[in-house]
Amino acid sequence: xxxxxxxxxxxxxxxxxxxxxxxxxxxxxxxxxxxxxxxxxxxxxxxxxxxxxxxxxxxxxxxxxxxxxxxxxxxxxxxxxxxxxxxxxxxxxxxxxxxxxxxxxxxxxxxxxxxxxxxxxxxxxxxxxxxxxxxxxxxxxxxxxxxxxxxxxxxxxxxxxxxxxxxxxxxxxxxxxxxxxxxxxxxxxxxxxxxxxxxxxxxxxxxxxxxxxxxxxxxxxxxxxxxxxxxxxxxxxxxxxxxxxxxxxxxxxxxxxxxxxxxxxxxxxx
Length: 270
Description:
Layout: E1 9-11, H1 13-17, H2 19-24, E2 29-33, H3 35-49, E3 59-63, E4 89-91, E5 94-95, H4 106-110, E6 115-116, H5 119-131, E7 136-140, H6 149-165, E8 170-175, H7 184-193, E9 195-203, H8 207-212, H9 223-232, E10 236-241, H10 252-263, E11 267-269
Parallel strand pairs: 1-2, 2-3, 4-7, 7-8, 8-9, 9-10, 10-11
Antiparallel strand pairs: 5-6
Helix pairs in contact: 5-6, 6-7
């Protein structure tokens, strides 16, 4: 870090999860936690003291214990981007997930009580992208888009009105838990709003591994049936799979391939 003689500031989920790794790499400043909490502290420090190279360990701004109110999150500076260098843009409506999957760091980083922006905030972000000339795919990067289902239900009608008023300039994709399959009304509304793809953490077709890792939301009914309902509603499913769970029976790769062929999932990350 700092090979060009400039102070180096590092933050984000990876740095927040393992800050000692980046301290050892030579970062001058570590920004830990969510930006709304710690970036103002960093800026105030730089304004008071200037940017300096480290003397010993990295200087840490640690907001990991805070869960900021995302209704106060400012508009992203999309105007600073070279839009034609991107395949998609990203917006965020919520943070956090109510589930307990033991291999996932989302609940450690962002908590189990999903926090959402106001519907007006999301529309303002889309308005900004639209005014800047963006057209096409927008990734709603929520950890679990339906983690706070009542608030999502309140937000979607306004999103639909905005899409209709602007000629549907955006197609959306997002991430959600598989229990989306049980809410036909919500799926219909998502499709009407322009959602085309949803990423689902399938992880494994092996129920014993799902139970071992507390991903019990994937065991409430056959996942093949859940995915069939989601695709039947008009949403393309992509998914993540994990190989190497503790106690995993031999042949897990073959079982994953059979599951993907049975469900017609076109894209999978391993």
